[in-house]
């Protein structure tokens, strides 16, 4: 089945640093990738949608300068949390899908900002 | 507006019991997709099923079955003879139909605890 790899799975870093999270589709070409954020015991909140080679489309309330998304190829998208602060601590999860196929999710990244 | 409601926040059952997770959705689209995903304690989301809106046949996969009722806008999920490994948060989701289907609208999830 479709496999999406997300790396790293856990990050702890100091306030003010930038953190990059990678999302790769391992066995299919992902026409679209999605980035979600999930707070404890809550549902997934869509942050942005990215199509390969295009600028990401951000949801309302998500700062595009804070959460930089790059989708350089059909198998890789990255989310960079710039100048991270404790309130950015969360579980970030990506998904990828091929044309007309369901979204398949990565394992998620737990980000803790000290 | 599109919306997915999972009214059951938490369900606790004893192993081997059957359990049904409810999902009710709202959409103005005439064609759409419905999904169920499982999120175990480890965090990853596991795809379980995608159903398109013009196929109302119920589906069974092992101990899992899904009942799609378009007339009541419901897409319920039943686990038969539940097992401890079924303990997880289950999300129902709604998505646009078609190749360029957009993002998913998720329900708030139902946490299922299966006790031995």
How many β-strands of chain B, per DSSP?
A: 12
Radius of gyration of chain B: 14 Å
- Rg of chain A computed from alpha carbons, rounded to a whole number of angstroms: 13 Å
Oligomerization status of the protein chains:
heterodimer
Coarse shape of chain A = globular
Query: Mean pLDDT across all residues of chain A, rounded?
Result: 91
Of all chain pairs, the largest interface belongs to: A-B, 24 and 24 residues
What integer is the average pLDDT of chain B?
Answer: 92
Number of strands of chain A: 11
Low-confidence stretches of chain A: none
Q: What structural keywords apply?
A:
heterodimer, A: 114 residues, mainly beta, seven-stranded mixed β-sheet, four-stranded antiparallel β-sheet, 11 strands, globular, B: 116 residues, six-stranded mixed β-sheet
Q: What does the model show?
A:
The complex is a heterodimer of chains A (114) and B (116). With 114 residues, chain A is mainly β. Chain A is 0% helix and 53% strand. The interface between A and B is medium-sized, with 24 and 24 residues.
Short note summarizing the structure:
In chain A, 0% of the residues lie in helices and 53% in strands.
Strands, helices and their partners?
The complex is a heterodimer of chains A (114) and B (116).
Chain A: E1 4-7, E2 10-13, E3 19-25, E4 32-38, E5 44-51, E6 57-58, E7 67-73, E8 76-81, E9 90-97, E10 104-105, E11 109-113
Parallel strand pairs in A: 2-11
Antiparallel strand pairs in A: 1-3, 3-8, 4-5, 4-9, 5-6, 7-8, 9-10, 9-11
Chain B: E1 3-5, E2 10-14, E3 19-21, E4 24-26, E5 32-39, E6 46-52, E7 59-61, E8 64-69, E9 74-79, E10 88-96, E11 104-106, E12 110-115
Parallel strand pairs in B: 2-12
Antiparallel strand pairs in B: 1-4, 3-9, 5-6, 5-10, 7-8, 8-9, 10-11, 10-12
């Amino acid at each position: 089945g479709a496999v999406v790899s997300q790396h790293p799975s856990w990050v702890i870093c100091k306030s003010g640093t930038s953190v990059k999270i990678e999302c790769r589709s391992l066995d299919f070409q992902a026409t679209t990738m999605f980035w979600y954020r999930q707070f404890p015991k809550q549902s997934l909140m869509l942050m942005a949608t990215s199509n390969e080679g295009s600028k990401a489309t951000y949801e309302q309330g998500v700062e595009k300068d804070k959460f930089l998304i790059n989708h350089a190829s059909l198998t890789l998208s990255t989310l960079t949390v710039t100048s991270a602060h404790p309130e950015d601590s969360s579980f970030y999860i990506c998904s990828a899908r091929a044309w007309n196929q369901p979204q398949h999710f990565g394992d998620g990244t737990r980000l803790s900002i000290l | 507006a599109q919306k997915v409601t999972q009214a059951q926040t938490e369900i606790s059952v004893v192993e081997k019991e059957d359990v049904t997770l409810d999902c009710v959705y709202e959409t103005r689209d005439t064609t759409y997709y419905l999904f169920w995903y499982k999120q175990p304690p480890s965090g990853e989301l596991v795809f379980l099923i995608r159903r398109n809106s013009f196929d109302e046949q119920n589906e069974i996969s092992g101990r899992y079955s899904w009942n799609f009722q378009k007339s009541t806008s419901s897409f319920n999920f039943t686990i038969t003879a539940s097992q401890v490994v079924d303990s997880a948060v289950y999300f129902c989701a709604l998505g646009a139909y078609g190749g360029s289907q957009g993002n998913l609208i998720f329900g708030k999830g139902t946490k299922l605890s299966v006790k031995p």
